[in-house]
Amino acid sequence: MLLHISASPRGPKSESLAIAHTFLETVREVNPSLPIKEYDLWDGTLPAFGPPAAAGKMAVFAGEEPQGEAAAAWDAAIKTFHRYDEADRYLFSVPMWNAGVPYILKQFIDVISQPGMVFGFDPTHGYSGLLQGKRAAIIYTSAVYGPDRGPAFGADFQAPYLEEWLRWTGISDIESIHFRPNLATADAETGRRLAHERARDVAKRFVA
Questions:
Q1: Are 191 and 146 within 8 A, CB to CB?
Q2: What is the largest CA-CA distance in the chain?
Q3: Tens place of pLDDT per residue across the chain (208 aa)
Q4: Pick the CATH number of 2-206 from 1.20.1250.20, 3.40.50.360, 3.30.2130.30, 1.25.40.20
Q5: 73, 110, 179, 202 — which has fewest CB within 10 A?
Q6: What is the DSSP string of 120-185?
Q7: Whole-model pTM above 0.85?
Q8: Which residues contact 163 (CB under 8 A, 6 or more apart)?
Q9: Helix H segments across 36-67?
Q10: C-alpha distances in angstroms, 67 versus 55, 71, 72, 73, 99?
Q11: Checking DSSP bridges between strand 119-122 and strand 89-95, what pairing results, if any?
Q12: What residues does each domain of the chain span?
């Protein structure tokens, strides 16, 4: 199953979602039998990870059973993880916010990044990712930052953060698609066309 995780709240005006649409259309053409599910992180179903959830996590770390509000918050985190874990392929559509990822994506990561779910821990050897054998494709967009522009146009804490998290969870098969036009320029169409072309190319390999 392929799960599309959308971190953009802009709907039909979103460049990342438009590229994701091209990607998913190509997947359906190449492998029409592959199940595809959508997870809009802005749809209101993502639980908070506040004091009760943190208490639940620390109880689990201590080998204890969460109680009361902590148990309910921990159960919500487990259900969110299972929604993610049932897929073996992921498509993330991620606009850049303030040089990083939208806070809703960071919230999602904090909710599911739990012991026994995405990682194991050994006091001698440290962390180990538990999501082996899965694949991820990521669509990155930014309106000002670009790798060929100077520091006055920002920095990239978007791609390094998300890809390092994926590797930490055990997912090392990662492909990326970038659309980074400069708002100060009049012509973003060439970059847009190339991003959609790459989305089609990556999608074909992704389900081969």
A1: no
A2: 59
A3: 999 999 999 999 999 999 999 999 999 999 999 999 999 999 999 999 999 999 998 998 888 999 999 999 999 999 999 999 999 999 999 999 999 999 999 999 999 999 889 999 899 999 999 999 999 999 999 999 988 888 999 999 999 999 999 999 999 999 999 999 877 666 788 899 999 999 999 999 998 7
A4: 3.40.50.360
A5: 110
A6: EEETTTEEEE--TT-EEEEEEE-SS--TTS-GGG----SHHHHHHHHHHTT--EEEEEEE---TTS
A7: yes
A8: 138, 174, 176
A9: 51-61
A10: 9, 5, 8, 10, 38
A11: unpaired
A12: 2-206
Tokens (6 digits) for 104: 């809703």
Alpha-carbon dihedral sign for residues 130, 134, 135, 139: negative
Name the token pair of 48: 């908070």
Residue type, 109: I
**Would you state the structure tokens that stand for residue 7, as one six-digit string?**
């971190």
Cβ proximity of 41 and 126 under 8 Å: no
For the CA atoms of 75, 77, 82, 84, what is the dihedral angle to 10 degrees?
Answer: 170
Tokens of 111: 């909710």
Which residues are paired to 37 by β-bridges?
A: 3
Phi/psi of residue 122, each to 5°?
Answer: -120, 130
- The helix (H) or strand (E) run that includes residue 206 is helix 189-206
